[in-house]
């Protein structure tokens, strides 16, 4: 383009002043137990920092306006829409993403196993959000009813499954966790008996 | 192998089945067909999938698209200098820039053209006008605001009913000699024969007529569309990671559009976050990304945001239909006729076989044996987003089934007949198959009555009608809706069907490694349907290698054989057949090698589940794994047999497959608020042989939820200036877990006679079959108000208007 030097200069100034990103912040928080320090634009969303700066792409962006729930992560144990949260708001927090659900040895969280057993997901783009919402639900209410599961997961959208398999997956997770608890109890009893 | 006889498959109906820890979840890890957990799930539940937006390439830049705020306007000028001066911007490109390289327009899949970036004028709101490439996504978006476009307002054509008015503004003045908004006309069946039957029925029987609108809706997959284009400046090879359901077809189109040699294009479709037809077309964003990578010499990523997805990519439906049925007074349906006005938006972006501009709408005669049928359609351009075929519609069968199943209920209303009985007495009979319909479709197999009876039994139909009568006497509004659909899926025979000249066949390649493990390569691409599991099961069923030992490769044009991809429920009918036949080819070779190993003649061997035995001496046997090692190992092979154990085929389907089903929906309508609650939904599907019943059930569940969305919630609407009013998920409502009931599913099994394993497509059955069942239920609930028809979406306000006698069609 053949803009005059003055025009180009003033355009550049306009661009940098009004729209070139603004201030940068330093941020320290924990993701899946690991300390993270990043320097990012203050306007950057938590979801973008998780996906791009920390390279944990298991958290997905389905709408970026807080409706679909695919970006749900846990912030200090509470489910949060990471697309609606500025990264700066997570300063000092403990964030858990789908990558943080399985144990370090690779053993799946019961909800992950249960979703596989129940054919919970199809394309699974929505799965990070459903899994994190379900974990938050089960932390709060380990024995939810079918109606409670539906209500609690109604903030997450899925286009493939018709939801029933996802509800079934949560119900199955409840059973796995119940039987895990019973096993632990039996083991404890057995140890008690032999000592 | 033998094909399962009708009704003999013994898998339990999965009615509200919630697996418990003690259930066998994996059907003994079936070495073939049966419930098997998905091979793709271990990565997906860990967040280890790789979707398009997860692709990161070193040096990658980000592309954002400037879109038109107006539906119809002339572009007077574009000033991009401020955007170009942005410190992080690498390029700003307009339609005029593309035109210099002859890239401003591209062909659509319907032999129309579509603007990549607008040059002369914009033809729908949010049309692509310019793009910016910048170092990061935020800066690219910032720079869009620095582009100054001056538009000159033109009156838009929004109401499709006015599109052909003599004084309507001409949208497509880019097409030489175009003086109106006519897109195409299409007809099927016999006009004269049909009119003769109608004339007779007017005298001696009954004719019912209804105006029925199937509103514009959107597939809205959870993952939006996007790509990463990486054109290597040295080798000239383009690698395109893309949200595509049809990687091979896209490669050929890019070769034709951009003049790139086809062997220098590699399309990779990574994990796809739902398609439903939305990821079949080629969108301007993909082409812009390729151009950007070519211009700048770096990889370029483009991902739509949700608004862009809803307002600019492949929509669905938008048919205005007048339906007519001629029948006897006893309820024998004699003829069906329809006149359709189809809104194709600003460019005809429909993806349909060339000879089928109205898709497979010609199956609108449904599941009924009739004397005559006729359809006429006029398709028009409007100032709305292009598209047409999307949202799991089986190439317009959704519209066809909705029309006929709504009309049968209209007839039942006027005859005061039970809608189940009316359907039962008009079905095509089992001995009539293969059945040629009055519009020329040859239904491969069907046995409709048992499927219908099973649904009625599961629903407890008689009890439901008794409950309804009792509730009506108390002023409560309960409705029971039935639909019975037949689909035509698995396009298609190459003598009739092609897209842009590409025959709709699919390839498949199978290699067995020396240790007896295998890799199968497909031309189709899963978007959640579980191909990595079911195709391994098909191979396992045929040659006995366990599914866990079979790697399924798909979605990469450099590493898979050519084929037309996954849409229109065609993966199992076409590619599934290819997989079975390629495995049989390998098995035939294995049998020859086995004959050498066992020192017996080929004819003296029998095969069962991965083992060849000498007839009458079963101790003498070799497994497929033994044979694989021999095929690759030292030692002699039978004369004339090459080493290795692999095969490739290209499968050209003989016919489409015709799955069918009976659906029953029960709704309650709140008389005070007009809110509709779907209380129950019974779905009995027949897709022939089932490869994995768990996955079949999932396909059905998903489609049923689609039906709830379309029938009760979803619509892409516009104001009179052409502003799209459904540009977010707060405006375009899709069902949540709260709007859907526990699905009650069952099945019958009527194999396809021409498919090697007897399978038919299932991916879209429920999306096709459920909307009429739900609407029929709501209209049935409103019977006390004297309502015979109401148009979707049946939102509380629209139902309320109907109850007040003010129901108007949606715009």
Question: What do these coordinates show?
Answer:
Chain A has 195 residues and is an alpha+beta fold. Chain A contains six helices and five strands; from the N terminus they run αββαβββαααα. Chain A has a five-stranded mixed sheet, sandwiched between helices. The longest helix of chain A is centred in the C-terminal third of the chain and has 31 residues, at 164-194. Chain A starts with a helix and ends with a helix. Mean pLDDT of chain A is 89; it is low at 1-8 and 10-19. With 811 residues, chain B is α+β, with helices and mostly antiparallel strands. Chain B is 26% helix and 24% strand. A seven-stranded mixed sheet of chain B has the order 3-7-1-14-11-12-13, with helices on both faces. In chain B, strands 9, 10, 15, 16, 17 and 18 form a six-stranded mixed sheet that branches. Chain B has a four-stranded mixed sheet with strand order 21-31-32-33, with helices on both faces. In chain B, α13 runs parallel beside α14, α14 (571-598) packs across α15 and α16 (693-712) crosses α17 (765-781). The chains are: A alpha+beta (195), B alpha+beta (811). The interface between A and B is large, with 77 and 79 residues.
């Amino acid at each position: 383009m053949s803009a005059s030097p003055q025009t180009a200069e003033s355009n550049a100034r306009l661009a940098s002043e009004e729209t070139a990103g603004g201030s940068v912040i330093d941020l320290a928080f924990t993701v899946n137990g690991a300390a993270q320090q990043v320097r990012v634009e203050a306007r950057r969303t938590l979801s973008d920092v998780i996906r791009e700066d920390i390279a944990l792409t298991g958290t997905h962006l389905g709408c970026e306006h807080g409706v679909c729930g695919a970006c749900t992560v846990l912030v200090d144990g509470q489910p949060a829409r990471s697309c609606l949260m500025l990264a700066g708001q997570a300063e000092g927090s403990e964030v858990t993403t789908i990558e943080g659900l399985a144990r370090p040895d690779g053993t799946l969280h019961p909800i992950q196993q249960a979703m596989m057993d129940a054919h919970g997901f199809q394309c699974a783009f929505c799965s990070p959000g459903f899994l994190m919402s379900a974990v938050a639900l089960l932390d709060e209410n380990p024995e939810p009813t079918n109606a409670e599961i539906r209500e609690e997961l109604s903030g997450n959208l899925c286009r493939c499954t018709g939801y029933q398999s996802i509800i079934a997956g949560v119900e199955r997770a409840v059973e796995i966790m119940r039987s895990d608890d019973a096993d632990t109890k039996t083991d404890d009893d057995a140890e008690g008996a032999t000592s | 192998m033998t094909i399962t006889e009708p009704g003999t498959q013994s898998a339990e109906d999965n009615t509200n089945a919630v697996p418990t820890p003690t259930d066998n979840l994996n059907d003994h890890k079936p070495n073939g067909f049966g419930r098997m957990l998905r091979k793709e799930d271990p990565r997906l539940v860990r967040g280890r999938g790789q979707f398009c937006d997860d692709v990161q390439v070193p040096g990658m830049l980000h592309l954002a698209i400037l879109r038109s705020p107006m539906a119809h306007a002339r572009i007077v000028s574009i000033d991009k200098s401020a955007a170009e001066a942005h410190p992080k911007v690498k390029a700003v490109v307009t339609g005029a820039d593309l035109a210099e390289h002859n890239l401003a327009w591209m062909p659509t899949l319907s032999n129309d053209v579509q603007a990549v970036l607008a040059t002369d004028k914009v033809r729908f709101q949010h049309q692509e006008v310019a793009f910016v490439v910048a170092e990061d996504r935020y800066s690219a978006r910032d720079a869009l605001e620095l582009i100054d476009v001056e538009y000159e307002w033109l009156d838009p054509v929004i109401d499709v009913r006015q599109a052909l008015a003599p004084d309507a503004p001409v949208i497509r003045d880019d097409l030489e000699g175009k003086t109106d908004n006519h897109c195409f006309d299409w007809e099927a069946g016999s006009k004269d024969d049909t009119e003769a039957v109608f004339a007779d029925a007017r005298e001696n029987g009954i004719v019912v007529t209804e105006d029925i609108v199937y509103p514009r809706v959107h597939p809205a997959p959870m993952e939006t569309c996007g790509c990463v284009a990486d054109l290597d400046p040295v080798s000239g090879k383009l690698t395109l990671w893309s949200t595509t359901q049809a990687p091979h077809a896209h490669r050929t189109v890019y070769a034709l559009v951009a003049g790139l040699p086809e062997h220098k294009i590699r399309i990779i479709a990574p994990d796809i976050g739902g398609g439903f037809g939305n990821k079949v077309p080629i969108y301007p964003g993909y082409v812009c990304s390729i151009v950007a990578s070519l211009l700048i010499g770096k990889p370029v990523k483009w991902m739509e945001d949700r608004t862009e997805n809803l307002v600019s990519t492949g929509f669905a439906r938008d048919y205005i239909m007048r339906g007519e049925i001629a029948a006897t007074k006893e309820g024998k349906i004699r003829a069906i006729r329809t006149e359709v006005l189809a809104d194709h938006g600003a460019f005809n972006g429909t993806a349909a076989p060339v000879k089928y501009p109205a898709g497979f709408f010609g199956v609108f005669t449904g599941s009924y044996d009739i004397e005559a049928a006729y359809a006429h359609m006029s398709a028009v351009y409007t100032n709305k987003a292009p598209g047409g075929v999307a949202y799991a519609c089986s190439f317009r069968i959704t519209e066809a089934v909705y029309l006929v199943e709504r009309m049968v209920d209209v007839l039942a209303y006027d005859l005061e007949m039970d809608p189940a009985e009316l359907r039962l007495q008009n079905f095509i009979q089992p001995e009539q198959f293969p059945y040629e319909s009055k519009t020329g479709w040859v239904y491969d197999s069907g046995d409709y009555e048992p499927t219908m009876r099973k649904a009625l039994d599961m629903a407890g139909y008689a009890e439901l009608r008794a409950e309804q009568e009792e509730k009506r006497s108390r002023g409560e509004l309960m409705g029971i809706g039935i639909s019975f659909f037949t689909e035509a899926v698995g396009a298609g025979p190459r003598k009739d069907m092609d897209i842009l000249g590409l025959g709709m066949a699919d390839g498949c390649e199978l290699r067995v490694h020396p240790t007896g493990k295998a890799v199968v390569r497909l031309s189709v691409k899963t978007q959640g349907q579980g191909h990595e599991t079911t195709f391994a099961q098909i191979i396992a069923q045929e040659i006995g290698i366990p599914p866990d030992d079979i790697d399924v490769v798909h979605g990469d044009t450099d590493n898979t054989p050519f084929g037309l991809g996954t849409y229109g429920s065609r993966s199992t009918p076409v590619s599934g057949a290819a997989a079975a036949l390629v495995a049989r080819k390998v098995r035939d070779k294995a049998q020859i090698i086995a004959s050498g190993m066992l020192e017996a003649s080929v004819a003296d061997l029998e095969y069962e589940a991965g083992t060849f035995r000498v007839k009458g001496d079963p101790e003498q046997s070799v497994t497929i794994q033994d044979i694989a090692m021999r095929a690759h190992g030292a030692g002699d092979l039978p004369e004339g047999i090459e080493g290795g154990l692999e095969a490739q085929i290209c499968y050209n389907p003989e016919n489409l497959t015709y799955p069918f089903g009976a659906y029953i929906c029960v709704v309650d309508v709140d008389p005070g608020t007009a809110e509709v609650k779907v209380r129950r939904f019974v779905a009995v599907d027949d897709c022939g042989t089932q490869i994995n019943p768990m996955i079949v059930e999932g396909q059905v569940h998903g489609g049923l939820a689609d039906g709830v969305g379309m029938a009760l919630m979803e619509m892409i609407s516009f104001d009179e200036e052409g502003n799209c009013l459904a540009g977010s998920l707060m405006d375009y409502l899709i069902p949540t877990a709260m709007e859907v009931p526990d699905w009650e599913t069952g099945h019958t099994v009527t194999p396809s006679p021409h498919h090697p394993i007897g399978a038919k497509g299932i991916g879209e059955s429920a999306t096709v079959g459920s909307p009429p069942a739900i609407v029929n239920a709501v209209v049935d609930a409103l019977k006390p108000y004297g309502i015979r028809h109401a148009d979707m979406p049946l939102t509380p306000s629209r139902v309320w208007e109907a109850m007040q006698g003010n129901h108007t069609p949606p715009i």
